[in-house]
Amino acid sequence: MLNVNTRNAFAESRPAVAESQLEVAVRAGVAAVDSLAALEQTLVQNNNFLQRGTPASNHVHQSRIRQSARDMDKRAWTIVMASSNVMQSEGLTRSQGGLGLRNVRVSETSLRDQCPPKVTCGDPSRRYRTADGSCNNLQNPEFGKSNTPVQRILPPIYNDGLAAFRINGVDGSPLPNVRKISSSIMVDINEPDPTFTLSVMQWAQFMDHDFAHIPFPSLENGQGIDCCPKDPNAQLHPRCQPIDISGDPFFSKFQTKCMNFVRSMLAVGPGEACTFGFAEQLNQLTHWIDGSNVYGSDDEEQRAVRSFQGGLLKTSRGNLLPFNPNQGGECEAELRGAECFLAGESRR
C-alpha cells in the first residue's frame, strides 16, 4: 500500500468566488468551446489534418471515438476553460485553481446541465451486467461506468494547475525529452524470452482492451489532428503537444523532426464529482473486467454485436467477427479494400 494520505493530497479550501463571477467564467468557457469548434472547421476546410495512409493517421484510425465520448469531452473542456477564467480573474494559485475549485460544484451554475444525469439501477437482483458498467456497485452506481474519469491515487501536477502539459521538474529545470527517455528505456533488440510466449502479451492486451481506452480527440470529419504541419506558421490545435525528435537516431533517417502527439480526451465526474478545477481523463470503456471488449460499453454497441437469437453474437463467414456495416475507414484493412470487423471494442 502507498504510505500517503490521499485525502490530504487533494485537500485545498474553496476560494472565495462570487456567484456572479462564476457566471462570467461560465460564459467564457462556452465561448472558448465555440472558438475551438470554429478553429476545427477552419482546419478541415484548409485540409490541415492528418492525411490518410501516413503512420500518424493509421494510428488514429486504429480506434473509434464514440459520439457520447465526444459530447463528454466537450462538456469537460467547457468546465476547464471556465475554471481557467476564474483563476485568471481572481488571481488564484495553481493549487487554489486546480484543487480549491474542486469544491465548487458545476450544478451551482448555469452549466448544471453539463453534469452527467444520475444513474438509476432498478432491480438489484438482475443477473447480467449493464452495458455501460453502471450499477456494478450499488452503493456507488457510477463507479466503473463508461465515459467517466479515470480514478486517481494522487492529484495531477499540471503546469497551470488545470490542464497544461507539465514542462518543468521539481527543481524548476526543464523536463527531459520524452522520446529520448523512451528510446533509452525501451531498447530495440531481439531478445527472446525463455519462459513466456507471445500469447502472454496478447492476453495482457486483451485484458487491457477490456477496461481501459483513453482516446485522443479527432476532428469532426473523423480525421486526426495534425500537430506537425509542414507550414511552420500554421495554427496548432490547442490539444497539440508535438514532440521534438530532431536528431533522433531512427527518425533522422527519414528527415522527420516532429512526432505527432495529441492530448487525451476529458471527462466530467458524476454527481458531487461534477466540479470545477483540474482536468480529468476520460475512459471510454467500462472500468471493470467484464468482457466489454466483446459485448460493448454502451447499449448501442451491445445491440450492434448481438444477433438476438438464442443469446448469440453476430458472426461472419467461418464464425469470425461480423463485418462493420458502417465502414467509415476505421481500420487499416479498409485502406486495402477489405472490410472492417465489428466488435465490442474498436481496437481490433
How many H/I helices?
10
Classification by helices and strands = mainly alpha
Mean pLDDT: 91
Taking strands numbered 1, 2, ... along the chain, how are they ordered across the largest sheet?
1-5-4
Shape: globular
What does this structure look like?
By secondary structure, the chain is mainly alpha-helical. It has one domain. Helix content is 30%, strand content 3%. The chain is built from ten helices and five strands. The protein has helices at 6-9, 19-45, 55-60, 67-90, 94-98, 178-185, 198-211, 292-295, 299-305, 332-335; strands at residues 148-149, 243-244, 258-259, 266-267, 280-283. A three-stranded antiparallel β-sheet has the order 1-5-4. Helix 2 (19-45) crosses helix 4 (67-90). It is globular. The protein starts with 5 loop residues before the first helix and ends in a 13-residue tail after the last helix. The model is unreliable at 1-5 (pLDDT under 50).
